[in-house]
């Protein structure tokens, strides 16, 4: 048995091995779909044991498995000294992948729920669906859908780079989102095909029944108490008031500068360009593709048609959301490429 186990743990990949094509595998349509997709992706990364990913996986999987053993102590391996990657492989060797996907997905669910409870202001759309409930217990229920907010929560908390692309009618759209930011090469590739989430895998046959076969996994133990919804609502309201106050303060300051001719529309355009290039990954779920819907939910404001007003609003929103600081923008204004600003201004004016 020892010899077989050692041979199982050996990597048969070399630096010259071509990258296998990925096949999209459905992750199911239940409330825990996103967590199941990420669990399958992580397990395959450990199976693949790519030299390029080993460092990132070791950093990611050790704390994740320690958390997993808190919720599923019976899955802690008896063999001492196993690395996280060897632990995953041993599980697969002993019991198959279905049980591992199900239990690891539940651990990921707990991490996502706790992240949302800790930062409710960043996941306001999720908590809107909990109106009428006394606590956040539903967040921990794997039948309650979290949607893309689960990806936001888990990729940030675990520092897990993921790419999500959208496919409609068999055609891949230009919409590709990288979580938690664009700075890291993705470990896991997801696709949303006609609204259904799939995970792209090299070993698709191993996970062919991911969407249909679910084991009778016992619920995780050691779950933290749910938070009262009154505390969640208070945290969100306090945050939103501060956010709108910062937005209004920034907007008013820029308007005063514009009226005093200290800046003009071209300078505002330059600030917008720098805001887009310097912006950090959005902290608020649902604002990656624009903040119009987010702010519309906070207030009823008339639409702006004036170019300067639109630019001011865009800058003020970015500052209030914490994506960029106004000080950073003004510091870069003098050294900005005016040709870039002119070109962008011409494109805007050329639009019908």
Concise account of the structure shown:
The chain has 352 residues and is α+β, with helices and mostly antiparallel strands. The chain has 13 helices and five strands. Strands 1-5-4-2-3 form a five-stranded mixed beta sheet.
What attributes does this structure have?
disordered C terminus, 352 residues, alpha+beta, 5 strands, single chain
Task: Describe the protein.
The protein has 352 residues and is α+β, with helices and mostly antiparallel strands. It has two domains: 2-9 and 18-217, no CATH class; 230-350, no CATH class. Helix content is 51%, strand content 9%. A hairpin with a 2-residue loop joins β2 and β3 (171-179). α9 (265-278) packs across α13. It is globular and about 75 Å long.
Subunit organisation of the chains: single chain
**Spatial extent as radius of gyration:** 24 Å
Shape: globular
Task: Provide the helix percentage.
Answer: 40-55%
Strand arrangement within the widest β-sheet reads 1-5-4-2-3
Number of helices: 13
Biggest beta-sheet profile: 5 strands, mixed
| Number of distinct beta strands | 5
Order of helices and strands: HEHHHHHHEEEEHHHHHH
Instruction: Provide the low-confidence segments as ranges.
Output: 1-19, 337-352
- Terminal CA distance reads 72 Å
Class computed from helices, strands and strand pairing: alpha+beta
Percent of residues in beta strands = 5-15%
> On the 0-100 scale, what is the average pLDDT?
82
User: How many domains is the backbone divided into?
Assistant: 2
């Amino acid at each position: 048995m020892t010899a077989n186990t050692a041979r199982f743990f050996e990597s048969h990949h070399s630096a010259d091995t071509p990258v296998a094509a990925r096949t999209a595998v459905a992750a199911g349509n239940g409330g825990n779909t996103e967590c199941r997709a990420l669990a399958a992706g992580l397990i395959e990364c450990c199976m693949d044991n790519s030299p390029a990913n080993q460092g990132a996986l070791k950093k990611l999987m050790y704390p994740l498995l320690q958390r997993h053993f808190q919720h599923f102590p019976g899955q802690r391996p008896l063999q001492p000294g196993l690395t996280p990657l060897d632990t995953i492989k041993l599980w697969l060797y002993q019991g198959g992948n279905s049980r591992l996907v199900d239990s690891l997905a539940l651990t990921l669910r707990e991490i996502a729920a706790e992240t949302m409870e800790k930062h409710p202001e960043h996941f306001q759309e999720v908590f809107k669906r909990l109106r009428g409930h006394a606590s956040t217990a539903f967040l921990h229920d794997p039948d309650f859908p979290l949607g893309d907010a689960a990806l936001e929560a888990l990729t940030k908390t675990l520092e897990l780079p993921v790419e999500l692309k959208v496919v409609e009618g068999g055609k891949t759209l230009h919409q590709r989102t990288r979580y938690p930011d664009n700075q890291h090469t993705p470990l896991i590739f997801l696709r949303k095909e006609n609204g259904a989430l799939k995970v792209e895998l090299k070993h698709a046959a191993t996970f062919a029944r991911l969407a249909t076969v679910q084991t009778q996994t016992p619920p995780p133990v050691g779950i933290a108490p749910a938070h009262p919804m009154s505390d969640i609502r208070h945290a969100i309201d306090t945050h939103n008031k501060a956010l709108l106050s910062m937005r209004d303060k920034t907007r008013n300051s820029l308007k005063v500068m514009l009226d005093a001719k200290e800046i003009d529309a071209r300078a505002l355009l330059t600030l917008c360009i720098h805001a887009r290039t310097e912006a950090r990954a959005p902290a608020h779920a649902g604002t990656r593709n624009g903040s119009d819907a987010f702010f519309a939910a906070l207030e009823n404001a008339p639409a702006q048609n004036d170019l300067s007003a639109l630019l001011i609003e865009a800058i003020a929103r970015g500052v209030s959301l914490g994506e960029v600081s106004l000080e950073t923008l003004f510091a870069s204004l003098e050294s900005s490429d005016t040709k870039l600003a002119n070109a962008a201004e011409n494109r805007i004016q050329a639009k019908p």
